[in-house]
Amino acid sequence: MKRYISAYFEDEENLLRATKELRAKDVSIQDVLTPFPVHGLDTALGYKRSNLPTVAFICGAIGLAIAFGFQTWAFTVDYPLFIGGKPHFSIPSFIPITFELTVLFAAFGMAIAFFIRSKLGPGANNIIHDERSTNDRFVIIVDLDEAGNQDAIVKSILEKEEALNIQVKEIES
Amino acid sequence: MDNNYTFTRKTQISLFVIGGLGILLLLLGYLLEAPNSQRFWTNFLINNLFFLFIALFGGVFQALHKIAYSGWHTALQRIPEALASFLPIAAILMFLLYFGMHDIYHWSHEGLYDPILEGKAAYLNVPFFFIRMAVYFAIWIWLTRLLRKNSLQQDLSTDIKYYKKGKLLAALFMVFFAVSSSTMSWDWLMSIDAHWYSTLYGWFVFIGLFVSGIATIILFISFLKWKGYLEFINKEHIHDMGKYLFAFSIFWMYLWFSQYLLIWYSHIPEETAYFAPRLNDHTVLFFTILVLNFVLPFLGLMTRNSKRNLKWLSLMAVVVLIGQWLNLYLLVIPGTIGKSATIGFTEIGFVCLYLGGFLFVVFSSLAKAPLLSKNDPLLEESFHYET
């Protein structure tokens, strides 16, 4: 059993202030959902930089190796053909495909890594805390401790920043 | 710190030393290498174009960002403005080409009896060549001067009309540059190999111009920061310049390869005639250019931290600038000097001389106005910029 409190804001300035205040009070914020990127929210939430670029580089390198290796094998070992009087192993003609597969692998690798890391994808059980998060509102979801010590503080901060639809939920985890 | 750059005696002297070194090397080259007039004019053209491109990029950078409603660049606007101040001198130097054009442009000779060149004579003839040159320079100089004047007037007034006028001028510059950047590269570079043509050439030269301009602006930021100016330029701005350098190095390679692949694949003699001398007679240079312009900036600027580290970024900018100069060198020499071309005292002397002169002009222009422009409605955005 996990307990959450969720609420939405009409303005991103309120959201930013509430986030900062909650973090100052050592309340753990599970997620913030916004209709557009809010400047300074990443730092306010204390997020570390993502490792996605590293994933992209590794996947891109794999794609490059696969594409180049496969073409080399296919054109020189498995089925050598003379095309346009060029040598079997002619690097310039391999480059467009190598380039494309590098990009493809990097892009898919990043998308898949993102899905795995954020537990998304087909069959994932996603809880919608507040319906307005699918619309134009700024939704904040806060983890509460089971003892209920933080409830009052969290509620007062949210109310002070004009949050609407404040609700406490208990969800099986 | 004062917002005005002071062009100190010390900097002036070091620029004179660079220029003087250039003259010394040229004399040394004259005595030891005895360059013929062709070598002289070829070097003249290469350096003219190299520094002209950087100056021209001053206009492109302003125009591009103004049109795109960009906010982040407004804090460093004075650097491209100063770069563009070299344009009038570049114009004079280009017109001096009149005296040496027979050494460079084969088509400019009379009585060639060459059916291919005869077919191109309506475009490639000496009077029209200089008329076009005059038109390009007249409009470039006119518009960049107006942009500069407008930005200086904006410093004194909070009227929004200067912002709007700047946008209009930028749009005009961009439209004209879009056409003239292609035609100038046909005129001044592609016509050296007058029988050969490539539809991609204008783009290729333009991206070379873009990359060397970005690298130059990075070096100016680096220099000014080292001297204690530009405290309002933060890591975010530097990160963006790094992204530019990274992205356009890749794009340069993309265009280079697009041109090469098609010619290599189709293997038509009149097309491969362009790459054959470059690849066979200057093999080392040919691949060095690819390493300097693509491999090193691509691997060196891949991570976020490397783009935000100004020292490392400046090093990469120097690498790319050297690469772009060599690229220009290889575009020109096979059609003029040919196989025997080497890089010696004459070449290095020319570069030093031009570099000293160019930096002197740009720094003088930089010292004339405050380094931070005022009253631009997007200036505040530039200070709070975050990538």
TrEMBL record, chain A:
<feature type="transmembrane region" description="Helical">
    <location>
        <begin position="94"/>
        <end position="116"/>
    </location>
</feature>
<dbReference type="InterPro" id="IPR021776">
    <property type="entry name" value="ActD"/>
</dbReference>
<keyword id="KW-0472">Membrane</keyword>
<dbReference type="Pfam" id="PF11821">
    <property type="entry name" value="ActD"/>
</dbReference>
<keyword id="KW-1133">Transmembrane helix</keyword>
<protein>
    <recommendedName>
        <fullName>Quinol:cytochrome C oxidoreductase</fullName>
    </recommendedName>
</protein>
<feature type="transmembrane region" description="Helical">
    <location>
        <begin position="55"/>
        <end position="74"/>
    </location>
</feature>
<keyword id="KW-0812">Transmembrane</keyword>
From TrEMBL, chain B:
<feature type="transmembrane region" description="Helical">
    <location>
        <begin position="168"/>
        <end position="189"/>
    </location>
</feature>
<protein>
    <recommendedName>
        <fullName>Quinol:cytochrome C oxidoreductase</fullName>
    </recommendedName>
</protein>
<feature type="transmembrane region" description="Helical">
    <location>
        <begin position="313"/>
        <end position="337"/>
    </location>
</feature>
<keyword id="KW-1133">Transmembrane helix</keyword>
<keyword id="KW-0472">Membrane</keyword>
<feature type="transmembrane region" description="Helical">
    <location>
        <begin position="201"/>
        <end position="224"/>
    </location>
</feature>
<feature type="transmembrane region" description="Helical">
    <location>
        <begin position="12"/>
        <end position="32"/>
    </location>
</feature>
<feature type="transmembrane region" description="Helical">
    <location>
        <begin position="44"/>
        <end position="61"/>
    </location>
</feature>
<feature type="transmembrane region" description="Helical">
    <location>
        <begin position="244"/>
        <end position="263"/>
    </location>
</feature>
<keyword id="KW-0812">Transmembrane</keyword>
<feature type="transmembrane region" description="Helical">
    <location>
        <begin position="82"/>
        <end position="101"/>
    </location>
</feature>
<feature type="transmembrane region" description="Helical">
    <location>
        <begin position="343"/>
        <end position="366"/>
    </location>
</feature>
<feature type="transmembrane region" description="Helical">
    <location>
        <begin position="283"/>
        <end position="301"/>
    </location>
</feature>
<feature type="transmembrane region" description="Helical">
    <location>
        <begin position="121"/>
        <end position="147"/>
    </location>
</feature>
